[in-house]
Amino acid sequence: MIRYALKCHAGHSFDSWFASADAYDKLAAGGMISCAECGSTRVEKTLMAPAVRHKSAGSSPQAAAGETVPAPSSDPRGAYMSREGEMQRAVARLRKEVEENSAYVGSNFAKEARDMHEGTAPTRAIYGEARPEEAKKLIEDGVPVLPLPFIPKRKTN
Questions:
Q1: What is the reported pTM?
Q2: How many helices (H) and strands (E) are present in the chain, helices listed first?
């Protein structure tokens, strides 16, 4: 897995995880990466501070334990918290939009998406779950799917 810092043409910054650099390239080329805030598919990678492993035992408890410690950010803490709150609100708006305008198909997602892509089922907006290998196969076969940044409410307690 690889995490990229991304930015849309409207200037919204966000992070996303991808199976590999090639997976990112395929999704980006297919216009399948979109901004969580405005929905734009004009998205590009931005510079990202690497995680740094400190060798000195006294620099921090995480470093002493051999854990990866993120590089310091130039953003003040308040700006970070504000951006985090904005992203949470954007994800909440996206969840509401998806749940109000799509059919939940649960674990049948991969089959339903493939059937619509192949024309054997009527096209409609759906969401649900797919195992990683199912999602990978859908993407490889050109079926337009995207991971959602939330767990469907039907899967939460």
A1: 0.48
A2: 5, 7
Who's near 112: CB < 8 A, 6+ residues apart? Answer: 105, 121, 126, 128
Q: Helix/strand/coil (H, E, C) string of 18-83?
A: ECCHHHHHHHHHCCCCCCCCCCCCCEEECCCCCEECCCCCCCCHHHHCCCCEECCCCCCHHHHHHH
- 9-56 confidence digits (pLDDT tens): 888 888 888 888 888 888 888 888 888 788 888 888 887 666 565 555
Query: Which segments within 63-150 are labelled E, that is strand?
Result: 69-70, 103-106, 126-128
Residues 6+ apart with CB under 8 A from 152: 99, 104, 127, 128, 129
134-146 pLDDT tens trace: 999 999 999 999 8
Structure tokens that stand for 77 in this block: 């803490």
pLDDT, one tens digit per residue, over 52-62 is: 655 554 454 54
- Hunting for tokens 């003040």 — which residue is that? 76
Amino acid at 90: A
